[in-house]
């Protein structure tokens, strides 16, 4: 036994220099020896351990591992290693790795030598590394942003999954590419500058646009971080965030805000947002202008601080109503402090009220004005008519409607021509006015209008077309006034002027007759009377002169008679003797009367006319006119050919009856005779008997009947007289 | 005595009277009467060629066919040739001042006389044309 103890001492000495702990177990696992522990990690005293089962100190989870190793070592006689947790004196668990050396056969040992080492620190270090790896993994591989590792050349050495997601390339496609190939050219300069800064050891952040594999642009936020080792930058890590959605969202929000703001600013409507306490949270320019302050000054102010009157306004009441019901309201209110009337809408919002309003002050004023004008236009004695561009009636006032005896409802939408009676107005006049309206220029027109009772009145119409911006006619305004009295006066004046003109002409003619026709026989009589004094009574010439004197005085008497005839015809104020006269009848009478004269000269008279033609005229004058003209034709017939006279009549487009008489007589040189044709005692042919009074008388008679005579003639060819009468 | 006088007038009564007065006052030796101014015009044109013009023309205004004014207008182209060779007086029944005014526009017209021709006027002619004649 002493030997054994010596042996122990030997071992102890050896093991004291060993960092491992040596324990000897018997075949049942009971500790029979333990070396002095140099690293008393478990803290047990040897005497505490000797005689106890080793399993007592091993973690129950690790027992199996230990037993397996022990069994293997026992059965196979090998040396086995196992790692397990052992309980320290303090109660802590320590990781221990042990070598089990089977020395059961060894007579000195007869057990297992277990050489153990505390590896707790190693295991924990390993666990820490694992944890770091996981941490890195999560930071790099699973990072939601792109993480890339760039070398000094700017090439991508590593890239995480997010990188492939953001840029659409596979990892293989990304690796070894220069980062520039993923950057939009415009952003290249900035990104290269940031990259260079990172290589100088300064991390940086940039924003820019990248390019996806499919060509679309992606908005990126990039953080470049230098990776330092021993004071030197060895790599640069890039963390790239896809902020496209964010940017777009920002952009959208910005745009929407701007749009909203610009809408609120551009509209003519005032807009105001109030919170529940009636503080202004938004105000547009229209509203600010109305309140005569700047938007900034008004913002966040209480409505009642702007004007205390508002606290008793309908507006406030309505706001409260909106707050209570949650429903929008619409109303109008006059605000004395700014002197405007507003048309307001109040809508409930989450935080208060939204107020839209329109300044209708002018509109109301216009409305009032319009009502006044409307009243005037409706009641005024003048007719007022408004036509639309297509000529249909838009509105007419009472006066206008009364004249036509029609209601506005009946007249509306109809054309003027449709509501006029057939005989009210000349249809051509309507067309003429309608055409003139198209010129777009105001004008006036006097039109004759026959009323229901058959009375004809004169209407003065002021027509004003209204044009739109493009110059097209929008509508036209007609203001009609009854100017019958004026028109009648005007017509009367015109008639008087005409009469005066004719009278003046008559007077001139009378002067001519006096100075020439009347004065000639007087001058002769004077001359012969003078001669009587100069010749002796017994001179045979005396009687001759006396005879001449008598002739002259007789001639004077004739002239006076003729002038009387002429002037009698000219006297148009004599009682009206007009009656319907058959033109054909008069022609027949003249023909019968002159039949003898015609037969005598072998002349022929042909009449061509409608038997029904009738003239409302003086039959005696008409007969006299035709008789004289036919007589003249016979008188001035050509000696070279048998006389042919044509008498005719026709009605022209205006309803005028035109009579004509043509002959194939000697004719006249119109150039020469024109100015004298219808003068007293003007004869153009000295070979033919005549006083030269016929044509003047004819002319006066025609004019007395309201007609007009014209002549056309050619020497040695014939003459045509045309006489036109108003229908 | 005036060697030759033309009376142009369609009024026979007036012509007789004028001729009688000129004769009575022994103012003219040769008096030719034209009832148609056209014929008088022809005579003047012929007379101009043959150097045989009247010394005095008494012209009526109111005539058919060619009246006094038209006669004067027809003579206008010959005006230069006629000036100083003959004198034209208008002898008319017209007392219209307008006619007298109008006659002044014609340089060939030497005077405007109202009918009838008075003895005094005939004497005046006699003196005027007689002096000329004597030269």
Automatic annotation (TrEMBL), chain A:
The lineage of its organism: Bacteria, Pseudomonadati, Bacteroidota, Cytophagia, Cytophagales. Residues 7-73, 132-202, 256-304 form the PAS domain. Residues 443-495 form the PAC domain. SMART domains: HATPase_c, HisKA, PAC, PAS. This is histidine kinase. The keyword Kinase applies. Residues 513-727 form the Histidine kinase domain. GO terms for biological process: regulation of DNA-templated transcription. Its EC number is 2.7.13.3. InterPro entries: HATPase_C_sf, HATPase_dom, His_kinase_dom, HisK_dim/P_dom, HisK_dim/P_sf, PAC, PAS, PAS-assoc_C. GO terms for molecular function: phosphorelay sensor kinase activity. It is an enzyme of class 2 (transferase). It catalyses: ATP + protein L-histidine = ADP + protein N-phospho-L-histidine. It comes from Adhaeribacter rhizoryzae. Pfam families: HATPase_c (PF02518), HisKA (PF00512), PAS (PF00989), PAS_4 (PF08448), PAS_9 (PF13426). Keywords: Kinase, Phosphoprotein, Transferase.
């Amino acid at each position: 036994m002493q030997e054994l103890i010596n042996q122990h001492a030997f071992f102890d000495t050896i093991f004291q220099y060993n960092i491992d702990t040596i324990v000897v177990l018997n075949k049942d696992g009971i500790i029979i020896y333990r070396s002095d522990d140099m690293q008393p990690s478990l803290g047990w005293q040897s005497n505490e351990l000797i005689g106890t089962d080793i399993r007592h100190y091993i973690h129950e989870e690790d027992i199996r591992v230990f037993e397996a190793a022990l069994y293997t070592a026992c059965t196979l006689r090998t040396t086995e290693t196992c790692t397990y947790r052992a309980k320290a004196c303090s109660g802590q668990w320590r990781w221990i790795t042990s070598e089990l050396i089977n020395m059961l056969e060894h007579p000195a040992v007869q057990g297992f030598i277990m050489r153990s080492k505390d590896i707790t620190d190693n295991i924990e270090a390993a666990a820490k590394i694992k944890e770091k790896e996981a941490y890195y993994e999560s930071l790099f591989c699973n990072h939601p942003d792109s993480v890339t590792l760039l070398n000094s050349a700017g090439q991508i050495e590593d890239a995480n999954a997010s990188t492939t997601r953001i840029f659409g390339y596979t990892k293989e496609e990304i690796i070894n590419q220069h980062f520039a190939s993923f950057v939009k050219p415009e952003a290249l300069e900035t990104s290269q500058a940031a990259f260079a800064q990172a290589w100088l050891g300064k991390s940086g952040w940039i924003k820019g646009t990248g390019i996806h594999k499919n060509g679309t642009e992606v908005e990126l936020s990039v953080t470049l971080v230098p990776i330092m080792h021993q004071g030197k930058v060895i790599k640069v890590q890039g963390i790239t965030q896809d902020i496209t959605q964010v940017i777009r969202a920002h952009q959208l929000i910005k745009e929407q805000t701007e749009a909203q703001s610009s809408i609120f600013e551009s509209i003519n409507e005032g807009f105001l947002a109030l919170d529940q306490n009636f503080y202004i949270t938004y105000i547009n320019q229209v509203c600010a202008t109305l309140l005569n302050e700047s938007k900034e000054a008004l913002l966040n102010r209480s409505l009642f601080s702007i004007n205390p009157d508002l606290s008793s306004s309908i507006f406030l009441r309505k706001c409260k109503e909106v707050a209570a019901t949650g429903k929008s309201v619409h109303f109008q209110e006059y605000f004395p402090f700014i002197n405007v009337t507003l048309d307001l809408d109040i809508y409930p919002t989450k935080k208060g009220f939204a107020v839209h309003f329109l300044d209708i002050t002018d509109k109301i004023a216009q409305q009032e004005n319009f009502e006044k004008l409307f009243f005037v236009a409706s009641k005024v004695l003048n007719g007022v008519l408004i036509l639309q561009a297509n000529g249909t009636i838009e509105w007419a006032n009472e006066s206008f409607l009364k004249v036509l005896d029609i209601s506005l409802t009946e007249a509306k939408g109809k054309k003027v021509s449709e509501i006029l009676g057939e005989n009210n107005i000349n249809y051509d006049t309507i067309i003429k006015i309608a055409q003139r309206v198209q010129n777009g220029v105001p004008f006036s027109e006097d039109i004759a209008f026959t009323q229901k009772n058959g009375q004809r009145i004169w209407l003065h119409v002021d027509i004003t077309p209204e044009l739109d911006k493009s110059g097209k006619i929008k509508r036209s305004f007609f203001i009609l006034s009854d100017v019958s009295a004026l028109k009648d006066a005007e017509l009367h004046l015109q008639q008087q002027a005409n009469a005066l003109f004719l009278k003046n002409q008559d007077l001139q003619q009378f002067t001519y007759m006096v100075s020439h026709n009347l004065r000639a026989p007087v001058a002769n009589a004077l001359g012969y009377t003078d001669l009587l004094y100069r010749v002796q009574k017994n001179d045979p010439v005396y009687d001759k002169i006396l005879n001449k004197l008598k002739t002259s005085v007789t001639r004077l008497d004739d002239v006076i008679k003729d002038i009387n005839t002429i002037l009698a015809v000219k006297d148009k104020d004599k009682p009206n003797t007009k009656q319907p006269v058959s033109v054909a009848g008069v022609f027949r009478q003249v023909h019968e009367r002159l039949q003898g004269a015609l037969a005598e000269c072998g002349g022929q008279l042909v009449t061509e006319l409608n038997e029904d033609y009738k003239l409302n005229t003086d039959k005696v004058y008409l007969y006299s006119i035709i008789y004289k003209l036919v007589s003249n034709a016979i008188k001035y017939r050509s000696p070279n050919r048998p006389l042919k006279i044509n008498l005719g009549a026709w009605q022209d487009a205006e309803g005028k009856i035109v009579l004509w008489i043509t002959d194939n007589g000697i004719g006249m040189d119109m150039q020469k005779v024109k100015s004298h044709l219808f003068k007293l005692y003007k004869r153009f042919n000295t070979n033919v008997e005549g006083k030269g009074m016929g044509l003047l008388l004819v002319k006066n008679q025609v004019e007395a009947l309201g007609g007009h005579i014209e002549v056309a003639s050619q020497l040695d060819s014939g003459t045509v007289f045309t006489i036109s009468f108003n229908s | 005595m005036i060697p030759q006088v033309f009376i142009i007038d369609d009024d026979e009564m007036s012509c007789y009277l004028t001729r009688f007065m000129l004769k009575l006052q022994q103012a003219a030796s040769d008096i030719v009467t034209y009832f148609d101014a056209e014929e008088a015009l022809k005579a003047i044109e012929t007379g101009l060629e043959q150097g045989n013009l009247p010394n005095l023309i008494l012209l009526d205004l109111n005539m058919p066919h060619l009246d006094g004014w038209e006669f004067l207008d027809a003579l206008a182209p010959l005006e230069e040739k006629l000036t100083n060779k003959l004198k034209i007086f208008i002898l008319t029944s017209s007392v219209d001042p307008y006619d007298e005014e109008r006659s002044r526009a014609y340089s060939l017209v030497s005077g405007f006389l109202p009918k009838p021709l008075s003895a005094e006027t005939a004497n005046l002619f006699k003196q005027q044309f007689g002096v000329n004649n004597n030269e």
